[in-house]
Structures are given as C-alpha cells and as structure tokens.
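RECORD TYPE: inverse folding
INPUT: structure tokens
STRUCTURE:
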C-alpha cells in the first residue's frame, strides 16, 4: 500500500492492489479506523435495528458519508449473508459498480470477485462464495427473469435512488410487489437527497392482506433514517456574465485556482467524453506551452468507458506538491467519492436523455442541470476542509431559471426496453403498474406500437412465442435483439453478432478531438458504401487478422480496449444466440442480407433524404422529423437516399449515428403494420 498523510494527521492506506488480499492485520486495522470515522458509523446499530424490524428502510445521507461502502458490510457483519444468502447493492452506473465493489473488497481485505463481487452487463465478477454483490439496477431486473422473487437475496439495497434512473424506478415498482410475496426480504433505499417522504409514501403497505407469513414484529411503514453529514462549508462563486464556452471557461478557472489558491484537488463537472477530452487537451497544451502556470497539475478524465487502470489513477492519492484535476461527467456528483477535492468547477450542464413521443425520437442532449444537482456538485468541495465552488453561470440564472429538481428518467425515455422487460416478468397491465413516477401514456403507446411491429407483442399486447420471449431474453435493446434473431433466416448471424457487439459499446474509434483529419483518413481504409454497420465488420476483420494487435489499432485510430470488449461481448452474444436456436452462419460478403437484417430491427428509424436538400437533410419516414447524418458516420456527405439509424444525438441539429443504407421496399416487407398504407403512402412521397 502507498501511504499518505491525511488532514487529521492520521495515515490513510489507499490503492492497495486488490490482489494483495491483505491478511496482514496491519492494513486491515487501518481501514478499520477509517471506517469508524465515517458519518454512517455512528448509525450502525440504528441501521441494523431498522433493517431487522422494518421491511423497508430509507437512508438519506450526504455523498461520502459511507452509505454505499459501509452498509453492505454492516449487514454482512450482522449475519444477513449467512446461510447461503446474498446482500445486493444496486447502482445506476456500471463504473460506480466496479469502483465501489473494488473499494469494499479492499476494505475487507478480500479478493474482488470472491466474498465481494460485482456484476454488470457482459461482465460477471462473482463466485459461489460471494456474500456482498454490487450490480447495476438493470442487471438485477434481468435476474428477475430467472428468479422472479429474487430468492437468493436477503437484503437489497437500492442505492442512488435520488437519481431516479429508469431502471431504478422499474426496480422499485417490482420490489414493492416482491415484498408482498416475500415479506422477509429487506429493502434499503438509499439516497443523497431528501425525497424520502415520497419514497416512503410509495412503500407504504396499506393492506395487510397477502402478508401471511410475515414476521409479526415487522413494521409495515418504511423507516426513514437521516445520516448527519459532516460536510464543511463551501463558498459559492458565480460568473458575472454568462459564459459562451464552458470548456474554455472551465480551463481558465482551473488555471486561476492553481495560480491563486492553496493546495487541494480540483473537480470539474463537464458533460461527456468529448468535452472532457477537449478540456484535458487544452490543459495539457497549456502545460506544454506555459510550464509555469500549470506545473504540478495532474489532469485526469473521468467518464464511463475508462479502463480499470485509468479508473485507478483517479482514486490514487495525489503526490505531495502536486494538484490533481479530475474532469468528470456527473458520475462524480453522487456516485463516487473522490478524496482531497477542495475546489469544484460546475459547468451547469450534464448529458441527459430526452424522448419526444410525438417525433418518436430519443436523444442524448447537453442540458442544464437542476438546483438539486448544482448543490450536490458544490458539496463535493467540502469533504476534507472548507472548499470553494465556481459556478460557470450567473447567480441570477441559478436563482430564477434553474429548475428545482430534475425529471425522472422514465418520463423522458423511450419505453421500448422497459415495457418488454415488464412483459417478460408477467406484468401485463403496464398502464396499471405501480410506478414511482408514471411515464406518459403517449410514450407507452408509441412503445407498444413499435413492439407490436417488431412482432414482439401480439394484438393483446402479450409477448409472442417464440420471438417475443427470445427478444426479451437478449440483454440488448429490442431492436438489436430482433436484428440478431432475424439474421438466422437471412443466414448472416456471424456478421450480425459482430455488429450487435459494436453497437453495444460507445465507440470503436479513438476520440476525434484534434485528430479529425487523421481519423477520417483512417476510417476511409475501412469505409463501406453500405454504411457504418458494414464498416464495423471491416474493422473487426482487420483487428482479427492483425492477431488482435494493439499496434494495429494505434495505427488505425481504433480504440484497442473497445475492440477487446467487442470481441468479449460478441462471444457472449454468440452463446446466447446459440442457446436461442440461432444457426451460426456467415453470409460470405453478401452485404445485402446484412443490411436487411439491420432493417428488420431498425425499420422504425428509417429516413429518407429530402429531394432538394443541399445540406443532406433527411426526414424520418414516420414522423417527418428533420435529421442529418452525423459527421462521424462514413456516410456523412455521401447522403444515400434511404437509411436507417441506430441512435440520435443532438447538438445544433439532430444527428443520426451509425447509419446503414436500405432499400425502401424492405420497410413494408419487414414491418407491414408500421408502414401500412392509410392515407398517402409515406414511402412514395
Ligand atoms: P456514500 O455512498 O455515502 O456517498 P461511500 O460509501 O461511497 O459514501 O464512501 C465513503 C468513504 O469511503 C468516502 O468518503 C471515501 O473516503 C472512501 N472511499 C470510497 N470509495 C473509495 C475509493 N475507491 N478509494 C478511496 N476511498 C474511497
Ligand atoms: Mg454512494
């Protein structure tokens, strides 16, 4: 272990490699001391008592107070994992799952994957000896398909409930149902902000009916426990005039702090990989051009999709005489605690999902955060001593314009995946489902329509057999699952599995900032006239022919880690497909059938080039929304007449990402209901 002095003069042990599973009592004792200093420690007995006596316990406590890392350990120490039972703790984000699991394993002095394990989609680090399991809420939902009452768990802690992710909300609705059937199951809902009242009302069990077998002493009302934080005061600074470029403003503020303020690490909240890497680059250039202003700065990005090694750097202690600058998405808002942060720079934005049922388009947009988020972000500066938060927006804006709370994700998402999961769990009355927050009827109808057209639901909105059940079985977006299943008949499953694997990761290219020209040239080596999907096939072929070489990736501006992941995910999808009876077959370069398989899954995303458009404007066939091909696509500026897209991102315009050319006649062939002829034929405009 590496040692650093902490503020209070004690010694912190950080970054013990998990493999050195320290049976050395020395390291363990030190963790013990750290654990006892956390605010939740004072509530240990209270928490255990409430969990013992209440079906549901709601724990509210400031970020960093120890909820995620400590409560599962307390439960284990109190015997909740005895007798072959498991303690689960869910997180909305995969990166947080990995990070907290490895921290808890470290604190317990065990090897990650044994007593303490984690599961995220396509990655299972648990074993038969696992007692505490961290997982995404999405993965727990999937587990319900095999084990509807989640019988292997004694306690389920739904963490970060304030985030109101779509999977968290569905999970809460389902857990409430499970509890009626399995009163011995204990739930802990933990959250960084107080929405405890509404959560508590949601978990109120009004009727005692159906609770036979419940332990008589078990309280029906949820218990609420508030963990008193020990955050230090944070001074808030606003800009005087609105900033036009928050990346540049963030970079200048970092340099200003570094120049004027005493030591202490800086946490910058930007929105996503692109702007984070842009800021990293600007700061790195500054370091090169102007050594004085930036000497001693260690600049680190933090976003999902980072490799484990990169994640570890974030958590490792800052060397003496240096200042760490972590540039992060809102994952550092409440999911992860970074030690040593004294300064926070808040751009006021985050990437959020928005769905419009009228246009039937869901996209990821950079949007203003809420006051609740802004307060959380500021709070990150007061962990170790009084800190400062620099808001890159005006006070007037904060007071008068920022929304008080965010909108739950379920009310701004496409519900296709959500509905198919509920259907697969036998919840037939989706409209009557007990949601913590109800999605709009329009979104539900849109989703039901798409699922019906995919052949996944029948006229009575029941899953079809076998297709509907098979689609639900594959842990992917139903459109991708349908594409995989249709490849069976088309004889191109090997190719389509590769495409599905690539579509389930963020990007296989290295980030384009500053190397746009080189990247475009590299892409040309693989570019296919049929579009991005076939281009992916070319890249994957090249990667395999190179012997999975990292140099090859480097030469071609391809992200080596992403490619390794693609290979791994593909292998897993291949096993699932095989189990579902898909014949594994290659179409030997007949790209027509591959495109047809893509169209069979993604027909709902069909677009047509506007006949007299000069700037490559397309309209969606169904709702006539204006969209353009994203500059990252190999079809950018090629503008074929008919395409289907995988997803939309919107900045100044709505851009289609991952685009494939299709024949318009396929649409009615693969989705006769969706493109039925009533009124003017949309395909003949
Ligand atoms: P909460 O869930 O209440 O936000 P956590 O349980 O995540 O709090 O964190 C409790 C404390 O554990 C943090 O304040 C921090 O000191 C420490 N900690 C958590 N994760 C790590 C890590 N990966 N590396 C070092 N310390 C960590
Ligand atoms: Mg936490």
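DESIGNED SEQUENCE:
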């Amino acid at each position: 272990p590496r040692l650093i002095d902490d503020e209070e003069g004690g010694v912190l042990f950080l970054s013990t490699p998990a493999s050195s599973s320290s049976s050395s009592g020395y390291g363990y004792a030190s963790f013990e001391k750290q654990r006892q200093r956390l605010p939740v420690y004072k509530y240990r007995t209270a928490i255990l008592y409430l969990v013992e006596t209440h079906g549901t316990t709601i724990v509210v406590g400031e970020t960093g107070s120890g909820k995620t890392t400590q409560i599962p350990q307390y439960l284990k120490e109190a015997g909740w994992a005895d007798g072959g039972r498991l303690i689960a703790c869910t997180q909305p984000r995969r990166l947080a799952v990995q990070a907290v699991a490895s921290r808890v394993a470290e604190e317990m002095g065990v090897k990650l994957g044994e007593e303490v394990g984690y599961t995220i989609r396509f990655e299972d680090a648990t074993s038969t000896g696992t007692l505490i399991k961290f997982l995404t809420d999405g993965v727990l939902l999937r587990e319900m398909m095999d084990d509807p009452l989640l019988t292997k768990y004694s306690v389920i802690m739904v963490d970060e409930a304030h985030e109101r992710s779509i999977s968290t909300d569905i999970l809460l609705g389902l857990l409430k149902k499970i509890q009626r059937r399995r009163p011995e199951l204990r739930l802990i809902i933990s959250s960084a902000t107080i929405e405890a009242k509404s959560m508590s009302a949601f978990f109120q069990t009004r009727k005692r009916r159906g609770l036979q077998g419940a332990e008589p002493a078990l309280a029906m009302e949820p218990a609420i426990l508030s963990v008193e934080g020990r955050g230090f005061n944070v001074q808030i600074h606003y800009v005087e005039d609105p900033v036009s470029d928050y990346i540049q403003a963030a970079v200048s503020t970092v340099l200003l702090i570094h120049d004027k303020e005493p030591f202490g690490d800086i946490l910058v909240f930007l929105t996503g990989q692109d702007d984070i890497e842009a800021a990293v680059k600007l700061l790195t250039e500054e370091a090169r051009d102007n050594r004085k202003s930036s000497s001693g700065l260690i600049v680190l990005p933090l976003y999902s999709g980072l490799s484990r090694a990169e994640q570890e750097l974030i958590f490792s202690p800052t060397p003496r005489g240096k200042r760490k600058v972590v540039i992060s998405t809102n994952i550092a808002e409440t999911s992860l605690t970074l030690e040593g942060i004294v300064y926070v720079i808040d751009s006021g934005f985050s990437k959020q999902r928005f769905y419009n049922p009228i246009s039937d388009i869901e996209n990821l947009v950079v949007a203003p955060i809420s006051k609740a988020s802004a307060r959380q972000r500021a709070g990150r500066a007061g962990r170790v001593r009084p800190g400062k938060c620099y808001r890159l927006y005006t006070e007037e804006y904060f007071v008068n314009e920022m929304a008080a709370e965010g909108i739950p994700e379920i009310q701004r998402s496409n519900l296709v995946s959500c509905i198919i999961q509920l259907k697969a769990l036998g919840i037939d009355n989706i409209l009557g489902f007990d949601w913590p927050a109800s999605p709009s009827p329009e979104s539900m109808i849109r989703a039901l329509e798409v699922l019906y057209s995919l052949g996944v639901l029948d006229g009575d909105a029941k899953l079809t057999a076998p297709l509907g059940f098979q689609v639900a079985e594959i842990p992917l977006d139903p459109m991708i699952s349908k594409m995989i299943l249709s490849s069976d008949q088309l004889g191109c499953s090997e190719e389509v599995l590769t495409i599905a694997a690539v579509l389930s990761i963020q990007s296989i290219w290295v980030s384009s900032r500053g190397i746009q020209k080189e990247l475009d040239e590299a892409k040309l080596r693989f570019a296919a006239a049929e579009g991005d999907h076939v281009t992916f096939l070319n890249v994957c072929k090249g990667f395999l022919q190179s012997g999975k070489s990292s140099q090859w990736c480097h030469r071609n501006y391809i992200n080596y880690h992403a490619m390794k992941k693609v290979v791994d995910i593909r292998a897993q999808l291949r096993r699932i497909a095989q189990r579902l009876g898909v014949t594994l077959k290659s179409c030997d370069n007949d790209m027509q059938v591959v495109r047809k398989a893509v169209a069979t899954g993604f027909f709902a995303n069909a677009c047509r080039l506007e006949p007299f458009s000069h700037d490559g404007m397309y309209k969606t066939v169904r709702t006539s929304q204006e969209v353009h091909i994203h500059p990252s696509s190999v079809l950018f500026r090629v503008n074929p007449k008919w395409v289907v897209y995988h997803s939309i991102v919107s900045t100044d315009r709505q851009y289609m990402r991952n685009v494939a050319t299709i024949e318009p006649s396929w649409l009615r062939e693969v989705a006769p209901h969706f493109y039925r002829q009533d009124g003017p034929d949309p395909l003949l405009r």
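NOTES: Residues 526 and 539 are 6 Å apart (CA to CA).
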